[in-house]
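Sequence only, no structure available. Ideas?
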Amino acid sequence: MMMLAAMPLTGLAGELKAVTDAEKGKVDVTLDGKPFMGLIFRGHAKPVVYPVIGPGGVAMTRHWPLEAAAAGEEQDHPHHKSIWFNHGDVNGVDFWKEGADAGKIVVTKLPAVETTGGAEELKVTIRTEEEWLKPDGGRVCTSATVITCGTEGTSRFIDYAVTIKASEGDVTFGDTKEGTMGLRSHPALNLKGAVAKGQCVNSEGETGGAIWGRHAKWVDYWGPVDGKVVGIACFDHPGNLRHPTTWHARDYGLIAANPFGLHDFEKAPKGAGKHVVKRGESLTLRYRWLFHEGHAKAADVAGSWAKWAAVRE
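Reply:
I predicted one. Tokens follow.
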């Protein structure tokens, strides 16, 4: 078994360590010897981040379909796998769903992993390169992804920077709600369901189901899990296309930032949200997932977004 370990970091928050298991196709990150997050880079229709463990050792995303369903978990939308990045219409190919007629995002070589940071903010950075393939195996485009995870005070974060490269010709992101930077939450954080006790708010002060399709800098879901109040925020970077983005954020636990689905979200003319990346050019999208204690106001999610958004690279 080929296993590679990045140099562990020790700071005020504890020790952060990453180990790559090439045979299993996974990078596991631990904090003080306990699971924090994992990148599964083989074996699925796209790279998937799982597990995701938040403050107090709480699982922040649902287990199913990557593991047996936990109590109260809905077994719907099997393509909603913890945390992922893809889109439902890229040059007419559906990368959102899974199946014989859907596209696949394939990591082309072993991820590069490094640990960095100071005593107060530890980080593990995972760099991957991908091919976006049609059902027949033809290449639509390529991408480079940088996933950075770490701690900030009592919170934990996972940052995504995805650069889509129009390597094969023009790349058109179609106007569909099915995308793009997605997470399926722990069922207790949902707004509806057997064990749901969640609430949500966006940066504009809108709450509940009203946040779906709206433009916002961030959204936040929180609630009690295993006796602890924890939350998940997703941040949209000011440098992103159409910032502040629109949100495919549902009451059943789907949280997705999607700048392309304007026809569904705004009742704009069909195709209004499409975006073309010209041959040889690229598009970079940046997001942060913040896993915090307490509700959005207590965690100062707005302040955390402002601090993160001020960093342009």
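The two ends are 36 Å apart (CA to CA).
Hope that gets you unstuck.
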